[in-house]
Specification:
The complex is a heterodimer of chains A (302) and B (252). A 6-stranded mixed beta sheet of chain A has the order 6-7-8-3-9-10, sandwiched between helices. Chain A has a 4-stranded antiparallel beta sheet with strand order 2-1-4-5. Chain A has 11 helices and 14 strands. In chain A, helix 3 runs parallel beside helix 5. The longest helix of chain A is centred in the middle third of the chain and has 16 residues. By secondary structure, chain A is of the alpha/beta class. Chain A is 35% helix and 29% strand. Chain A folds into 2 domains: 221 residues, Rossmann fold, CATH 3.40.50; 57 residues, Alpha-Beta Plaits (2-Layer Sandwich), CATH 3.30.70. In chain A, strand 1 and strand 2 form a beta hairpin. Chain B contains 10 helices and no strands. In chain B, helix 3 packs across helix 9. The longest helix of chain B has 32 residues. The relative contact order of chain B is 0.15. The chains are: A alpha/beta (302), B mainly alpha (252). Chains A and B meet through helix 2 and helix 3 of A and helix 1 and helix 4 of B.
């Protein structure tokens, strides 16, 4: 049984300028115990897909199951199996951290959850904030509470929707150590993130969405191997000739050119020399997930 | 899911109790102001039921008005606040059913309504002689009226997307209906047209039935009032449950 199964999901919104198709026939399975990444640019439909999974939105057609339970017809069992960390930094200003966690446990029918709540507080570095009101917490602390709230009922499937957006380095470390531990203990993790190095480091398998359609689904290692495997990187202050600029990925002074083999590297260097480009910090490196992502999103251009 | 419902009910009660000065204290003070002013002006000029002074007549009406308005305020403001601040998501991802939502929100409204009503009664009872002729009507109409308004508040909370939309509901529907329900007068003193209009207002039956419990006399039979109030509650509850179940303005 798949931990999560998306079957032919479409979602359309009726807007002023006709219908908007936010998701268009998305199907894939996440197996139990996987650490799965869902990537795509803003507006690709990631959050819509997760909202449908969580029951916050309804698919126009298709179905979703969590641990075999349909999220519409068997919603209670599906939601019992799911822990969602929402993207927005939301909180209830009336309660303290511990009260919020007790209330969330109660919604899921969990009684005497004290020891697990203590463990969550400890693991997420919230122990000394347990009795502080939610309003008094910093953004990073509120984010940790959101993670704890999603885990109070020990769900087998954990969904994190951009959990590290705007979060400091220390929290990212704490958070990933904790989530990786839960994954090792058997929890299935679904992650959306903008930080591609996080996805590369953590996710065993990755799906990429573009304009509501799935454009890639593979093991992370296969995605990395299947595309351009080496990149020529350097810094320059000079403008590249149009022929090179068209195939380069340029970030400020840093220029990256894809190069399958030594001949391609020599070819690039010759082109740079003949154009009189002054090159600094030249290196040849392995392509990372960002290269793969850009290649898939922009169709072949690295 | 009994435990989940209980948790949500407890949370909703806890929420208003944490700001009890504002949610219980303030409405009690408002009701006392009404009593002091209207009682002072009208005590010796108006006698609605034979042998009953105006202040004595007014007290049950004020108690019931406070019950109704605060029951409405509790569910409606809690839901709208959660929607606007976004923390409703914690409830939306939970396995709680539409019945659980309804029971908890309306239950907390009844608790708030009865708490404020008891507070108003405890303060105003010293201003005039009182007796409880048929106390069971007091309990029945206070509870049923609070449940009806709690349910109406839940419906309004589902519909409203902003605080000013909620204010429209409160100021243009709830306030006129409570003020024109015979809290401050007997509807029999009204001209025929307004008498007819009053008889179309379910709030009139709530106040009239509630007052029956104190004086043993009422404008209409308490059984008729019970039928109207019970019927309106079933209607509003049914519609609210339908909206909750369909995810109206909750699940896109």
């Amino acid at each position: 049984m798949a931990a999560v199964r998306f079957a032919n999901i479409t979602k359309t919104y009726a807007g002023a300028r006709g219908t908007l198709r936010a998701l268009d026939g998305v199907s894939f399975d996440i197996e139990q115990g996987e650490f799965f990444g869902l990537l795509g640019p803003n507006g690709a439909g990631k959050t819509t897909l997760i909202s449908i999974l969580a029951g916050l939105a309804r698919a126009s057609s298709g179905s979703v199951t969590v641990m075999g339970h349909d999220v519409v017809t068997d919603f209670a069992a599906a939601r019992m199996a799911l822990g969602i960390v929402p993207q927005e930094l939301v909180f209830d200003p009336f309660f303290t951290v511990r009260e919020a966690l007790r209330i969330q446990s109660g919604y899921f029918g969990v009684r005497s959850n004290g020891p697990w709540i203590d463990e969550l507080l400890q693991s997420l570095g919230l122990a000394d904030k347990a009795d502080a009101n939610m309003r008094q917490l910093s953004g990073g602390m509120k984010r940790r509470v959101l993670v704890a709230q999603a885990l109070v009922h020990r769900p087998p499937v954990i969904v994190l929707d951009e959990p590290t957006a705007g979060v400091d380095v220390e929290l990212r470390q704490t958070l990933w150590q904790f989530i990786a531990r839960l994954n090792r203990e058997g929890h299935t993790v679904l992650l959306t993130t903008h930080y591609l190095e996080e996805a590369e480091a953590l996710c065993g398998r990755i799906a990429m969405l573009k304009q509501g359609r799935m454009v890639a689904l593979d093991r992370t290692s296969a995605l990395l191997a299947g595309t351009v495997s080496t990149m020529l990187r350097f810094k320059t202050d000079t403008t590249l000739p149009p022929a090179l600029a068209a195939v380069a990925r340029i970030t400020g002074r840093i220029v990256q050119l894809k190069a399958q083999d030594a001949a391609a590297v020599e070819q690039h260097l010759a082109a740079l020399r003949s154009a009189g480009i002054n090159v600094e910090d030249l290196e040849i490196g392995r392509a990372d997930l960002e290269d793969v992502f850009l290649e898939i999103m922009h169709g072949g251009r690295p | 899911m009994m435990r989940g419902t209980g948790t949500l009910l407890g949370k909703e009660v806890h929420r208003f109790w944490k700001v009890g000065f504002q949610t219980v204290g303030a409405p009690v003070l408002t009701a006392v102001m009404y009593l002091l002013i209207f009682g002072h002006v009208l005590e010796n000029r108006v006698q609605v039921f034979p042998g009953i002074g105006y202040t004595s007549f007014l007290i049950p009406g004020l108690v019931m008005m406070s019950v109704l308005q605060n029951a409405f305020a509790n569910s409606s403001s809690s839901l709208v606040q959660s929607k606007i601040t976004g923390n409703l998501v914690f409830l939306l991802v939970s396995p709680l059913s539409h019945w659980a939502w309804f029971t908890a929100y309306v239950g907390a409204s009844v608790v708030r309504g009865l708490a404020v009503g008891a507070g108003v009664f405890a303060v105003t009872v010293w201003f005039a002689p009182f007796h409880l002729a048929e106390p069971w009507w007091v309990l029945i109409f206070a509870t049923l009226g609070a449940a009806m308004l709690g349910s109406l508040g839940l419906m309004a909370g589902l519909w409203a997307e902003k605080f000013d939309q909620m204010a429209v509901f409160q100021n243009f529907i709830i306030m006129p209906m409570t003020f024109l329900s015979g809290v401050f007068y007997s509807v029999h003193s009204l001209p025929p047209l307004w008498l007819t209009v009053s008889h179309l207002n379910p709030f009139f039956y709530m106040v009239d039935g509630f007052r029956r419990g104190f004086f043993g006399v009422s404008d209409v039979s308490p059984w008729l009032s019970l039928a109207v109030v019970g019927g309106s509650f079933v209607l509003v509850a049914g519609l609210t449950l339908h909206l909750l179940r369909s995810g109206y303005k909750l699940r896109s």
